[in-house]
Amino acid sequence: MKEFTLTRKKSQLPYAMVLLLILVLFGIYLSRVGKILAVRWIFGIAFGFVLQRSRFCFTAAVRDPVLTGNTSLFRAVLIATTVAMVGFSYIQFAAHLSGCPVPGMIKPAGVHTLLGGIIFGIGAVLSGGCASGTLMRVGEGHLVNMIALVFFIAGSAAGAYHFGWFKENIIKFARPVFLPDILGWGAAFFGQLAFLLILYWLALWWDYNSRAE
Questions:
Q1: How far apart are the first and last CA of the chain?
Q2: Disulfide check for 77: which of 61, 143, 150, 162 has CB 3.0–4.6 Å away?
């Protein structure tokens, strides 16, 4: 029989301290260039830390319920979406009542939306993560995600370069979709809220039944 010996992992604390020192020094440099750069630097580091510790990834949120039956990340996305929806609805409705233009990125939805979603979904599944998940795993040293990040940037650059053609030949034929204009403010708000609550309940039901099996 083979004998297995436990090897103690080398402490990574010295590397962490050096990295922390580099982050602080670079933050000080940015603060001298421009205060807003230092704020963005701190926010970016904090956001990345939260992503890494929470394992937050939109692709995993949809993938995990199918592969493992775990819906915790999917439910977290639903909660975040609900909070954002309530907040932005208040801002937009307040602007509507005051007679100001309704703020927000109200864009056309059409074939290009469906096609782009399918292509992005396939790429996210093959690479093992969405944009946030890829960046988070690159920071952890995952080689596959480093390769995915290169093609993510290349694809984004190609899409930006050809965006004019897509806009003139496909996007301009689609109409902007803003649910309050279609359903009314009340139906749009409470309809979305009810839909998200139903999805949350279904996620709990799926999680419970998957664990029971």
A1: 35
A2: 61
Q: Residue 192 sits in which domain range? A: 56-212
203 and 118 together in one domain:
yes
pLDDT tens column, 147-179 = 888 888 888 899 889 888 888 888 888 888 888
**By the 8 A CB rule, do 175 and 108 touch?**
yes
Are 90 and 184 contained in the same domain? yes
Please check whether residue 186 lies inside any domain of the structure.
yes
* Pair (139, 75) in one structural domain: yes
Q: Which residue has the tokens 């897509």?
A: 166
Q: What is the model's pTM? A: 0.72
Residue 11 main-chain phi, psi, to 5 deg? -65, 135
Residue 43 sits in the same domain as residue 121: no
- The total of structural domains in the chain comes to 2
| 198/85 Cα distance (integer angstroms) | 15
Phi, psi of 70 (to 5 degrees): -85, 120
Q: How confident is the model at residue 199 (pLDDT cuts 50, 70, 90)?
A: very high
Token reading at 144: 């596959």
Cα–Cα–Cα angle for 97, 174, 115, nearest 5°? 120
Contact 56, 136 (CB under 8 A): yes
Task: Tell me the pLDDT tens digit for each residue of 93-145.
Answer: 998 888 888 888 888 888 888 888 888 888 887 777 777 778 878 877 778 88
In a domain, residue 126? The reply is: yes
Among 81, 108, 114, which Cα is nearest to 195's? Answer: 81
Instruction: Please indicate, yes or no, if residue 5 is contained in any of the structural domains.
Output: no
**181 residue type, one letter:** D
